[in-house]
Inverse folding.
């Protein structure tokens, strides 16, 4: 996976082919990985844990545990972590604090904010999108977070191959 903070998009890759592109929301506070910050870290990370198997869309998580509550998309006044959690572990000095800072890819009820920086450091997705992503990625999957356009970080986006019949879903945007 590659996340572009500049474009607020996540590209799902399979052996270099772009399988889907999802709109996301990264930190409204900026980029970095200082302890206690609310920044989105950059660089190479991995999915360390997957949390939320079979949770309903909008299922609320507190401290990575389901509370039993459901918050529907775009519910006013609520901003919990919902639906699924992909917990990230940094692989470089520049993102070494990501795991201890609880940096996730997760669902949000604030779906109207997707596509703009709005998070407290995590990568937010629509509930339907995080369910799709969760179902196809495994623990250990690589996540690269960049502050450049996806096209500069994902060669397949600019190659003719990514538009060929061999790549069944080069763009899935909502």
């Amino acid at each position: 996976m590659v996340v572009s903070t500049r474009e607020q998009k996540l590209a799902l890759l399979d052996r270099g082919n772009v399988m889907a592109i999802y709109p996301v929301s990264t930190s409204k506070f900026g980029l970095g990985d200082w302890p206690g910050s609310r920044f989105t870290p950059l660089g190479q990370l991995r999915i360390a844990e997957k949390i939320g198997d079979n949770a309903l869309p909008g299922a609320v998580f507190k401290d990575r545990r389901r509370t039993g509550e459901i918050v529907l998309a775009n519910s006013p006044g609520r901003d919990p972590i919902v639906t699924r959690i992909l917990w990230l572990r940094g692989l470089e000095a520049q993102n070494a604090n990501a795991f201890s800072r609880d940096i996730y890819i997760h669902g949000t009820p604030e779906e109207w904010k997707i596509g703009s920086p709005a998070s407290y450091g995590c990568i937010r997705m629509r509930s339907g999108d995080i369910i799709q992503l969760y179902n196809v990625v495994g623990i250990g999957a690589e996540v690269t977070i960049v502050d450049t356009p996806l096209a500069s970080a994902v060669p397949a986006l600019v190659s003719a191959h990514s538009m060929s019949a061999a790549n069944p879903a080069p763009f899935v945007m909502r």
